[in-house]
Amino acid sequence: MRYKFLDLKQLNEPYMGVINEALRRVAESGRYVGGTEVERFESLLSAHCSTLSCDANTSRNQATQFHAVGVSNGLDALRLILKAWLAMGKLNPGDEVIVAANTYIASVLAIVDAGLRPVLAEPSPVTMNLDTSRLGEYLTERTRAVMPVHLYGRVCWDETLAKFVTDHNLLVIEDNAQAIGAEACCDGLFGSRRSGALGHAGAFSFYPTKNLGALGDAGAVVTPDEELARTVRALSNSGSDRRYHNILIGYNCRLDPIQAAVLNAKIGDLNEVNERRRMLARIYDAEITNPKVKLPLQGGKDNVWHQYVVTVDNRDDFRSYLAAAGVETDIHYAVPPHRQPCMEVIFAGKEFPLTDYLAARVVSLPISACTSESDARAIASIVNKF
Ligand SMILES: *Cc1c(COP(=O)(O)O)cnc(C)c1O
User: Fold this and answer.
1) From ligand 1's centre to the CA of 306, what distance in Å?
2) H-helix or E-strand containing 69?
3) Ligand 1 atom, smallest distance to 151 CA
4) Tell me, what's the pLDDT at 371?
5) Is the pLDDT of residue 56 over 60?
6) In what order do the strands lie in the sheet containing 308-312?
7) d(Cα 256, Cα 259) in Å, to the nearest integer?
8) The Cα angle at residue 337 between residues 332 and 341, in degrees rounded to 5
């Protein structure tokens, strides 16, 4: 028996009918940049962020109105938010942004690319997200923003973080590439509890492997700030606010309408996709009992399980054992940003022992739509025999 980590073709198989239909609509529309598919996706995403799913009947159900701007990918979403804040005078070159040291490198790339300074913060070994109790250690006179990364699908948001950013008047840019659909346990700054809508701006990625995946690159920016939304939209569209009128030194980072059409065909299933991942996580939680394998903190609404990440001391042996038993695994991420060749200079002399500790031990088990309940039980029992 073979247990695949991820098979994108298989993942999209159930959507082939609606996807083909969507692709045809775009092809026959004659409108290949912008247009109704992009607009529809933006309004679906902003509705998703402005509403709470779990408390359908409470007065809190309608949060602030959030604006969504479709863009080219998740890294560009992060870059555009930061560059828009620079253009708006809310950030200045050289300002510091606190970000988790164990994130995927794109979070840090965006900060560096915008001419800002990334200040890496150690994760909590329990949540594997920013250790919010230690944020004060990273605060300097130049700190202007915090970038919570909802790593592996778990929301990085609590009262400590909310108080920290409010007390120090910091901007919050969420890297929500991995956690679309997750809900925080307490209110964000603008009333929504949805990940990506907790702070001043959220960056989304729809890279094919994400919980909501396109058939190529795609991303979005979500914000309650209308001026920021307008600036991001202009920056992503050659810096123009209307045809042939360029107010900013911009880029071409628009969301492709073909990808928007695919996302429109899939977004309705997002809750179901996330619930399935939660169910698989619960199976692993309950059935993996091997003391050599440390399980992730259990999750509720706050986790959409983009990855199910265990920690194991002798990782290589563990992975070879699993491979021999037919279980594919992956590592997120073996080389943290501060150890990447392109960032050696930036972080020279800095040490992140917890980040290094985790990078040497994390292993991701299969948790996608390609994994069935019985697969998860079988994988758990194979893990237990290691
Ligand atoms: C995927 C990802 C990104 C980048 O998204 P792309 O669409 O691939 O550019 C950024 N941050 C995190 C945490 C990610 O997982």
Assistant:
1) 12
2) strand 67-71
3) 13
4) 97
5) no
6) 293-294, 308-312, 362-365
7) 5
8) 120
